[in-house]
Predict the structure.
Amino acid sequence: MDYFNYKNNKLFAEDVEVEKVAAEVGTPVYIYSKATFEEHLQKIQEAYSELDTTICYSVKACGNINILKFMAGRGSGFDIVSGGELYRVLQAGGNPSKIVYAGVGKTDTEIVEALNADIGYFNIESEAELDNLIRLTKQHRRAASKQPKAALRVNPDVDPRTHTYTTTGKKETKFGVDIERARRVFADYGRESSVKLCAIHIHLGSAGHTVEPYVEAIEKILALIEQLRGDGFTIEAVDVGGGYGADYITGTAPTAADYAAAIVPLLRGKNLKLILEPGASIAANAAILATQVLYSKAGGRKKFVIVDAGMNDLIRPPLYDAFHFIWPVKVSEKFVPQQRDKDLQLVGTEVVDIVGPICESADFFARDRALPPVKRGDLLSIFTAGAYGFSMSSNYNARGRAAEVLVDGEKFSVIRKRETYEDLTALEK
Ligand SMILES: Cc1ncc(COP(=O)(O)O)c(C=O)c1O
């Protein structure tokens, strides 16, 4: 679900013409829909309202502070993985007690910053990290701050059935500790007075398409929690991570209500607070990347459409083999897409590769894709680009990062300026 629709054969972000944004701000440009973000958050809040639930939006998906600010205003907490993300959330006015902090390589500086901020939970990924947190807490905790709480990240060894690069909850990943070792960790650290180990965290991976892996994983950790409680430990919360599907193809992802229908009954009456860390399911559909056609050319049997966005702007297609629906911003009536799909082959389309200007063969957005005929200067929309789009962008080939624009009804504003040549060299003194 999102608020990017064709009206009178032109693409609109909410009530703003995409062409108008591109004319004023230039391309490539990320265009976000505030209503889409808010509606996704609200649907998750409603779906889990029966339980004591904290939704911690995953900052890594899309972390512009203007976005974090209105998400915080709507009651969202935040899942962070670095000192930089903590800084962003605090800048945005996020509630520190609703922050959960994962990541296998937290530095001492980052841990102390999070201790000073009184975050909700440190999501602990190894015994060595917990040792370090305890040591730093003893050295640095201020008298006024709360006793830090920790959740042990456990590997439930469940396959989320997604790309190997986005699979995190199986054995032999670098994340968390094996479920068989969790009791040992609690035996060693569960009675520690400086850091309260009182929750379990899992994150299966990203870009899931099905509910079943969550059911399987939650059943496993509920059994673990029962054992831990039997051993005399207090477990107050379970954080089931993120990874819920987004509609890269229209109507293919389970909805928040679908996930909740399977998850809530498992947790009902278990005296556990629930934490969720959705990223893509909130942000992916909340943006497009608008880009302009520079050139068309033939190469062997192939046709290429070369656009002004590159893999430095959106790396998901080469990195994850990810599908993004791509379509012209202005079309004739017969090309108005009724849905976003891999096989949308309307009469009159051409099969092309849509590629960027970067000096890498991996710089592509789509291969062998049917597209209505386009010419130099036409605008294309790369849909469902809100998650891991701008946040994964880089300056490769000395390209300034794209501008970010937030649309709110009939209004739009630039929430991050396009980077200039001066920005590229500003730190190189
Ligand atoms: C620990 C953790 N939580 C939540 C997320 C968000 O995942 P998604 O954007 O797929 O919902 C991630 C993504 O990598 C993660 O590593």
In short: The mean pLDDT is 95. Residues 58, 60-61, 79, 102, 203, 206-207, 241-244, 277-281, 387 surround pyridoxal-5'-phosphate (CB under 6 Å). The first strand starts at residue 4 and ends at 7. The two ends are 46 Å apart (CA to CA).
